[in-house]
Amino acid sequence: MERSFRALLLHRSSLLLTAASFCGLIIVCAALISAAHPAITTERPGAETSLLDGFRHVEAASVSDATEKLLGRRMYMSHRMRPIFPSRFAGFALTVQLKKDEGSQDPNALAGMLTAIDQGEPNSVYVMAVEDGVDIAGMGGLMGTAMAARNFSGAVIDGGVRDVAYLQKISFSVYALGIVPSTSVGHYRFAGTNIPVVCDGVTVNANDIVVADADGVVVVPRAKAQEVLALAQEMDFKEHSMYATIEKLKSIEEAVKKFGRL
Question: Which residues, 6 or more positions from 169, have their beta carbon under 8 angstroms from its beta carbon?
């Protein structure tokens, strides 16, 4: 009886050791996998989130004025850059460049364009420069769906856009030079992501802040973002305060004298 009991204890101890070794192996494997494939960062630091929230509450016109005053140059896109439906957003630029490659037979010519989306973080603005692409759709419903699923703020395309009915249906904001049914497949190749691009005449760098509303699109260099925001907020406050003054005094000249804003 005693031998049987000892044998049972030894058997159970062996099972426990085997289970413990197995669990340890799982933990080690998980650690190795985690080290080889770090988790995707889904949230930016709090200071950046707060900065972006500030830009979402000021008008693009004030951001444009503030940027021009501080930098001494135009950072707004032209009247050609229009939304496919009324919308506003602010986000960090994720830039993509497409170059002409007529008759391309390379099935991976545009693969990098898709990878850029799948690696994009929440609050990104997909800024695409399509070489001579006013009549080429740089994006459509499929890409827009992926961006929306990854919580992008919106997209700005120096080129065309298609599938607008579906983009409107999912409420994904896109600004583009026009609406066209064409495709970039077989005509263009991916030429880089998160590199400086020129979008409707404005240079955009990765992580610059892009602000868009009914008045258009403005780009704020990341290094100057805090200064631009502070000045834009001041300009917004003055302008919004002026409306009541103009109505009361029935004079825009008096309001401008009082607030120094036009």
Answer: none
The C-alpha atoms of residue 132 and residue 117 are separated, in whole angstroms, by 22
DSSP-assigned letter for residue 76: B
DSSP string computed for 192-240: EESS-EEETTEEE-TT-EEEEETTEEEEE-GGGHHHHHHHHHHHHHHHH
For 124-136, write each residue's pLDDT tens digit: 999 999 999 999 9
Neighbours of 217 (CB within 10 A): 28
Q: Which residue has the tokens 């490659």?
A: 101
What CA–CA distance (Å, rounded) separates 8 from 3? 9
Helix (H) or strand (E) holding 156: strand 154-161
Residues of the chain whose pLDDT is less than 50? Answer: 1-42
Distance CA 11, CA 89 (A): 65
Q: What angle do CA 172, 175, 179 make, to 5 degrees?
A: 95
> From the CB of residue 191, how many other CB atoms can be counted at a distance below 10 Å?
17
pTM, rounded to two decimals: 0.80
- Cβ atoms of residues 227 and 70 within 8 Å: yes
Distance of alpha carbon 202 from alpha carbon 116, whole angstroms = 21
